[in-house]
């Protein structure tokens, strides 16, 4: 079989499939998935009374009966270790005004909860102002490559009318049909945060 010219096209089919049957390249896979819009969530848990959380876009609904969602976390994730220890996690579906929180919770070494308005709800950290909030018990785990897929049984759920934050083509935004003008840098006031946590 002749070797491909190093300066020529990728020796893979037009659909990205490796010509020799091996897996598609990591860069090609990343580029493809970057174009897929995904919900932006912050997955949280508590361990020995300490809050933990991280930004996650690998989140999806899974089942209606029983109500299940899936979340994928890197096997080396500190958050994953905490969730496996406690058996519970929360999913904050971020609103479009929470882009800054998505970035904070994505950074390693950051004091993630220092600047976030949050409180405990059902014993888990809920970020005030989130478009949606789910409390889950870990029902099952499935290993997939370098990630672990968590199936969460939903024990509590709450949503607001806030447009959700999504991520696509390496950019934050929201669905165009929901993108009505919003106040610049919309933020919850201290009194609103206290009232929400007292509900």
What's the structural blueprint in terms of helices and strands?
Layout: H1 26-34, E1 38-39, E2 41-47, E3 50-56, E4 59-63, E5 68-74, H2 78-86, E6 88-93, H3 99-104, E7 118-121, E8 124-127, E9 132-144, E10 147-159, E11 166-168, E12 171-173, H4 190-197
Antiparallel strand pairs: 1-11, 2-3, 2-6, 4-5, 5-10, 6-9, 7-8, 9-10, 11-12
Task: Give a brief outline of the structure.
This protein is α+β, with helices and mostly antiparallel strands and about 200 residues long. The protein has four helices and twelve strands; from the N terminus they run H-E-E-E-E-E-H-E-H-E-E-E-E-E-E-H. It has helices at about 25-35, 80-85, 100-105, 190-195, and strands at about 40, 40-45, 50-55, 60-65, 70-75, 90-95, 120, 125, 130-145, 145-160, 165-170, 170-175.
Keywords summarizing the entry:
disordered N terminus; 199 residues; alpha+beta; 7-stranded antiparallel β-sheet; 12 strands; 4 helices; globular
Structure description:
- By secondary structure, the protein is an alpha+beta fold.
- It contains four helices and twelve strands; from the N terminus they run αβββββαβαββββββα.
- The protein has helices at 26-34, 78-86, 99-104, 190-197; strands spanning 38-39, 41-47, 50-56, 59-63, 68-74, 88-93, 118-121, 124-127, 132-144, 147-159, 166-168, 171-173.
- Strand 4 (59-63) and strand 5 (68-74) form a beta hairpin.
- The longest helix is centred in the N-terminal third of the chain and has 9 residues, at 26-34.
- The radius of gyration is 19 Å and the shape is globular.
- The model is unreliable at 1-13 (pLDDT under 50).
């Amino acid at each position: 079989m002749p070797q491909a010219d190093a300066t020529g096209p990728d020796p893979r089919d037009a659909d990205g499939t490796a010509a020799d049957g091996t897996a598609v390249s990591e860069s090609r896979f990343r580029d493809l998935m970057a174009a897929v819009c995904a919900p932006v969530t912050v997955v949280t848990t508590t361990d020995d009374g300490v809050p933990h959380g991280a930004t996650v876009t690998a989140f999806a609904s899974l089942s209606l009966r029983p109500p299940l969602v899936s979340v994928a976390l890197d096997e080396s994730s500190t958050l994953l270790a905490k969730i496996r220890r406690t058996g519970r996690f929360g999913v904050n579906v971020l609103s479009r005004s929470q882009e800054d929180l998505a970035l904070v919770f994505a950074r390693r070494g950051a004091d993630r909860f220092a600047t976030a308005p949050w409180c405990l709800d059902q014993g888990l950290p809920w970020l005030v102002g989130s478009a949606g909030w789910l409390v889950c018990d870990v029902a099952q785990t499935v290993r997939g490559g370098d990630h672990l897929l968590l199936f969460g049984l939903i024990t509590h759920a709450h949503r607001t009318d806030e447009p959700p934050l999504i991520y696509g083509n390496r950019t934050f935004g929201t669905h165009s049909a929901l993108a009505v003008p919003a106040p610049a840098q919309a933020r919850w006031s201290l009194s609103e945060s206290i009232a929400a946590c007292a509900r």
